[in-house]
UniProtKB/TrEMBL annotation:
SUPFAM superfamilies: alpha/beta-Hydrolases, Single hybrid motif. Keywords: Lipoyl. NCBIfam families: PRK14875.1. The keyword Oxidoreductase does not apply. It comes from the Bacteria. Its cofactor is (R)-lipoate. It comes from Pseudomonas putida. Residues 4-79 form the Lipoyl-binding domain. InterPro entries: 2-oxoA_DH_lipoyl-BS, AB_hydrolase_1, AB_hydrolase_fold, Biotin_lipoyl, Single_hybrid_motif. This is Branched-chain alpha-keto acid dehydrogenase subunit E2.
């Protein structure tokens, strides 16, 4: 039996409506295995590769390099088994005749982030999925809930998943009182109270990992498990120059050399990513918040918090990129946890190796 598969423009994150085809990584006639990267696509937020969700032979490249196409548009045809050219023509023609791009209205975009007064300050969070023990996603220093845009929908297929903007970040209130780890952790607990969640799984990236560990230290009964991704708080070393350089950067030329350190693949730092980050850094109160937090996290190249002792009280998964230039992957050694090191990824491993990270997280959460 032959199967004709259509590969379409993926939707990465809520705001994505279209993507520009950059380069084809596979050519017509190439054998493709499930999970292979088939082409590179650039959006206004990020560049990434489109992976094949099926195996077969790439029979037809429909999208051309430099072409900008809406989410869901036909990119390619992949065939398992045999198929005549005429059959492929018919599939393409039918697809194009029936395809309707997503509406431009906000209603068509589906669920949207919420904002509310939580623990005495404005907080933004975003919920997807339902059921199960909820999972809370906690971003890192200088990030926001969009740091999880490649993870949130996949994880929400199996449970309720909530990503938040920590104080000082995203669209949450910028002013911090003490600007320390406890203040951020208390905000996560306040959000759990606000949403009537007695117990949650926590997944934290970088500084968000230290926040998650600290929540487990402050309120162990509220935490079902810990998933720690390139986490702070598990060793002494940190790239202090990155932190200081990121805080000080006031224009694109100063920011770019800092941002490229976050990824193993520097091309992922798009012009738009830099513009968005500069826009955030220029908001009132952000500079003060980042300076407070940077000094709370690290003293030069040394982290101020050692939270390794928290591990062992909860099921824990630790994920690291082997090429992490911010916090060394060697911190994953000797922990009371399941450990996955992805050798080719950098500090933003949940973006660079989203498929593998999502599979590992889903498998871990199913057990706990």
């Amino acid at each position: 039996m032959s199967q004709i598969h259509t590969l379409t423009m993926p939707k990465w994150g809520l705001s994505m409506t279209e993507g520009r085809v950059d380069t084809w990584l596979k050519q017509e006639g190439d054998e493709i295995n499930k999970g292979d990267e088939v082409l590179d696509v650039e959006t206004d937020k990020i560049s990434s590769s489109v992976e094949a969700p099926f195996s077969g032979v790439l029979r037809r490249q429909v999208a051309k390099p430099d072409e900008t196409l809406p989410v869901g548009a036909l990119l390619a045809v992949v065939v398992e088994g045999e198929a005549e050219e005429a059959e492929i023509d018919a599939v393409v023609q039918r697809f194009q005749a029936e395809f309707v791009a997503e509406g431009g209205t906000d209603q068509a975009q589906g669920p949207a982030p919420q904002k509310g007064e939580v623990g005495g300050r404005l907080l933004r969070w975003f919920e997807l999925g339902e059921g199960g023990t909820p999972l809370v996603l906690v971003h890192g220093f200088g990030g926001d809930l969009n740091n999880w845009l490649f993870n949130h929908p996949a994880l929400a297929a199996e449970r309720r998943v909530i990503a938040l903007d920590l104080p000082g970040h995203g669209e949450s209130a910028k002013a911090l009182q003490r600007g320390d780890l406890d203040e951020l952790s208390e905000t996560v607990l306040a959000l759990l109270d606000h949403l009537d969640i007695a117990k949650a799984h926590l997944a934290g990236h970088s500084m968000g990992g230290a926040v998650s560990l600290n929540v487990a230290r402050l309120a162990p009964q509220r935490v079902a498990s810990l998933s720690l991704i390139a986490s702070a708080g598990l060793g002494a070393a940190i790239n202090g120059q990155y932190l200081q350089g990121f805080v000080a950067a006031a224009n694109r030329n100063a920011l770019k050399p800092q941002m490229v350190q976050l990824f193993a693949e520097p091309a992922l730092v798009t012009r738009q990513l830099l513009e968005d980050m500069l826009k955030f850094k220029r908001l009132e109160g952000v500079d003060d918040a980042l300076r407070q937090l940077a000094s709370a996290i690290a003293d030069g190249d040394r982290q101020r918090h050692d939270l390794r002792g928290v591990l062992g009280q909860h099921p824990a998964l630790v994920v690291w990129g082997g090429k992490d230039a911010i916090i060394p992957a060697s911190h994953a050694e000797g922990l009371e946890a399941e450990v996955l090191v992805l050798p080719e990824a950098g500090h933003m491993v949940q973006m660079e190796a989203a498929e593998q990270v999502n599979q590992q997280l889903l498998a871990f959460l199913r057990k706990h």
